[in-house]
Amino acid sequence: MRIITGSARGRRLLTLEGEDVRPTTERVKEALFSILQFQIEGRRVLDLFAGSGQLGLEALSRGAREAVFVDAGKEPISIVEKNLANTGLGEHAKVLHMDYAAFLLRRNDPFDIAFLDPPYRTGLLQKALPMTAAIMNKGGVIVCEHPVDEEVPDTAGDFERKRDYRYGKILLTVYRHRDL
């Protein structure tokens, strides 16, 4: 796993080990950032269920103003911190070791981009999505990564499903504010 482009281009990233771990593939990550390519610079990004932090790190490398990494696991948080140090992107990052719901219920400054990639088929995506929509800027975008056979809602608060992008067995579902 590596940073695709930007200020940390080519830097290798540490990843979590284990059978339950499935980092976003290079192909899906490239597609995701092609979808968002002109919407990243200067934006505030949330990497919820951060894992190794590769999505938030890629956004920072491409000019995001700030990335907030949230994960409930100690090991993922340690990996995110090491990846931030290794890429030199830590200055614009906040790493929070906490449950997604506890984070989303806090009073947060709004986000422009949110990445949701929780463990598959656990119901976490369906629970986190409306809570995430509540802390987004009106012009923001929420991107969910999930298997094609996992149902996601058409709406989440004021955000609605705008488009699905299929990559083999994986779907990227993009939500934007209903008025945009």
Automatic annotation (TrEMBL):
Q: Which GO terms describe its molecular function?
A: 16S rRNA (guanine(966)-N(2))-methyltransferase activity
Report the EC number(s), separated by commas if there are several. Answer: 2.1.1.171
**Which keywords are on file for this protein?**
Methyltransferase, Transferase
Please indicate which superkingdom the organism of origin belongs to. Answer: Bacteria
Under Pfam families, the record lists: Cons_hypoth95 (PF03602)
Concerning Gene3D superfamilies, the annotation shows:
Vaccinia Virus protein VP39
Q: Write down the NCBIfam families for this protein, in alphabetical order.
A: 16S rRNA (guanine(966)-N(2))-methyltransferase RsmD
Name of this chain's protein:
16S rRNA (Guanine(966)-N(2))-methyltransferase RsmD
